[in-house]
Write a structure and sequence with these properties.
Elements (H helix, E strand, L loop, with lengths): L10 H10 L3 H4 L1 E2 L2 H4 L19 H10 L8 E5 L7 H12 L5 E2 L3 E5 L6 H41 L19 H12 L6
Antiparallel strand pairs: 1-2, 2-4, 3-4
Length: 196
């Protein structure tokens, strides 16, 4: 990263490093809250972490007013533009870089940052992504037109065709619960002493 002390690094920095890196961002990108949460559920107008004008106060406002808010320590890393589906990308990260990912989707993985992660961990992930991006660039340059056409078709299948989803009907109001009820239910299921 850029030599700042470790305590100044956070998931916002990692997102910015990935999304603004000239090579990495061609193939990998961190999804933004605006891409993952429809505007009608983000009344505050919050779109992303770390944008110019972003502040902690705006984040707190979004927490207070928005129906949904993404935890900044959970980063949806899009890998479809690199030609990988989530399962392939997870396996590559594990086998080549010993980076463990728990959750995958059609064209993404979920990177979870926690208190045990160090500045070195974040730098290693950036290096791994840069290495993979260089390898893809090299493969496309050396593989000729057939390789580039196959890659383009693979990316289209993962990114564009993967976006076509079946509409989900609205939930029956009988199944809607309040946040307070959900919190109590979550606490009860997590606590071994409850209902004994």
């Amino acid at each position: 990263l850029d030599g700042r002390p470790i305590q100044e690094y956070d998931p916002v920095d990692l997102r910015r490093e990935i999304n603004q890196h000239p090579l990495i961002s061609r193939f990998f990108r961190c999804a933004t809250p605006a891409e993952m949460i429809p505007a009608e559920y983000r009344k505050s107008g919050f779109t992303d972490y770390g944008l110019p004008g972003w502040s902690l106060a705006k984040t707190i406002q979004a927490l207070d007013t928005d129906e949904f808010f993404l935890d900044p320590t959970r980063i949806t890393l899009l890998c479809g533009n690199a030609g990988y589906d989530g399962t392939q990308f997870k396996a590559l990260l594990a086998s080549e870089y010993d980076i463990q990912i728990n959750k995958t989707s059609r064209n993404s993985v979920l990177v979870q940052i926690n208190i045990n992660n160090t500045r070195g961990d974040l730098a290693f992930l950036i290096k791994a992504l840069a290495d993979m991006a260089r390898a893809i660039d090299k493969r496309l340059a050396e593989g000729g037109e057939a390789e580039r056409a196959a890659f383009k078709a693979r990316v289209k299948a993962l990114v564009e065709e993967g976006q076509k989803m079946v509409a989900v009907p609205e939930a029956n109001p009988l199944f809607e619960i309040s946040w307070a009820t959900w919190s109590v239910m979550s606490w009860m299921s997590a606590s071994p002493r409850v209902l004994r």
